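[Meeting: bench + compute handoff]

Bench side (C.D.) handed over the final construct sequence. Compute side (W.E.) agreed to return the predicted structure before the next meeting so the bench team could plan truncations. Sequence as handed over:
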Amino acid sequence: MESLKTRGVADVPAMAFMFVVLVLAAISMHAYSSRQLRAAADRQLELKSEHLYKTLELAWVEPYNKSFLDAAAENLLLEQPIVPSPRLRSSMENVLEYLRPPDYAVAVSLAHDNASWVLSCPEGAGLGLPADKQFVRQGEVRITMAGGENVAVAVAVRLFKLG
């Protein structure tokens, strides 16, 4: 009888160890399987930032028949742009407000030399977030100046989570 009691007590640490291993295995399997879901959600947001960029590149500011990015580049480079700045900002805010995902903000920035033009939707959304929290689509817009000079303006559309 005495040997049965000792043998039963010896099984308790082994069973506890197996339980701990089972719990750790379940946690690691759950973490491994949810990694793909996070990657898919990130890819959707990358595609959304691409969609926003292409929309601003191809859609026109009415009634001026200028694309949003061309009009913003002109506002950056020219003293008398075709599309007035208040009209451009209002139209672009409406488009971005409609297209951006819920709980996300969009920032459009154009830069050439030391000049920059920035618009964020909603207004005042922070641009100082770390790069890993943002989904960025970069490109450039080319504007032909009056003297025939072809000027490239760097464009970045950033999509990031609010809060």
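W.E. noted at the follow-up: The first helix runs from residue 2 to 58. C.D. will use this when planning the next construct.
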